[in-house]
């Protein structure tokens, strides 16, 4: 069966799409909030292009959501700023973990390697704390795929509709 004929995405690719949509929705909101502060015309043009590219990415990715594996139904409650800020910290900590892991593999100096490992561990603990907070508050339904994807769609829609 070809990819075009497949009606359901695999769980792992659905979760990767979730990560991309969640990160880009938050990023798009931040870009749209920041562009009005840009005095430099060239930087403003770059921001506009980044906004347009991110909107295109989101619109392309959310088209795959109807093909996500089916799970039990659940209403997703309205998210307030707390969810946005918590999600921003979650993405920041996740990015740091990935960045530190890559940097460690490029490090030859033992004292620098030890420093980076300690900083990686702090980043991992930060990620754990914010994830646990979000999960406890119902802001990240990690074990409910349908709710997770519905939340992504709400955030993507909100980001796309922002002026």
Residue stretches low in confidence (pLDDT < 50, at least 5 long) are 72-79
- Mean pLDDT, nearest integer? 84
- Count of strand segments: 0
Q: Give the count of structural domains.
A: 2
Q: Strand share of the residues?
A: under 5%
What series of H and E elements makes up the topology? HHHHH
**What does the main sheet amount to?**
none
Structural class, judged by helices and strands?
Answer: mainly alpha
Rg, please?
A: 18 Å
Portion of residues within helices = over 70%
Please work out how many helical segments DSSP would assign.
5
Family: Belongs to the CotF family.
Pfam family, one: Coat_F
Keywords: Capsid protein, Sporulation, Virion
Main location: other
Structure description:
Belongs to the CotF family. Keywords: Capsid protein, Sporulation, Virion. This is Spore coat protein F. It is found in: Spore coat. InterPro entries: Ferritin-like (IPR012347), Spore_coat_CotF-like (IPR012851). The protein has 163 residues and is mostly helical. It has 2 domains: 1-76 and 142-163; 78-140. Helix content is 71%, strand content 0%. The protein is built from 5 helices and no strands. The protein has helices spanning 11-34, 41-62, 81-105, 110-136, 145-161. The longest helix is centred in the last third of the chain and has 27 residues, at 110-136. The chain starts with 10 loop residues before the first helix and ends with a helix.
């Amino acid at each position: 069966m070809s990819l075009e004929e497949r009606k359901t995405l695999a769980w792992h690719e659905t979760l990767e799409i979730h990560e991309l949509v969640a990160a880009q929705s938050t990023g798009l909101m931040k870009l749209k909030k920041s562009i009005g502060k840009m005095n430099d015309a060239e930087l403003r043009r770059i921001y506009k292009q980044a906004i347009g590219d991110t909107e295109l990415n989101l619109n392309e990715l959310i088209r795959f959501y109807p093909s996500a594996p089916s799970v039990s139904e659940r209403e997703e409650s309205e998210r307030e700023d707390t969810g946005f800020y918590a999600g921003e910290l979650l993405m920041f900590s996740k990015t740091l973990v990935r960045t530190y892991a890559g940097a460690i593999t490029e490090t030859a100096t033992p004292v620098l390697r030890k420093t980076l490992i300690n900083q990686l561990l702090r980043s991992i603990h930060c990620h754990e704390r914010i994830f646990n907070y979000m999960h406890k508050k119902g802001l990240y339904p990690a074990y409910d795929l349908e709710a997770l994807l519905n939340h992504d769609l709400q955030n993507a829609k909100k980001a796309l509709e922002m002026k």
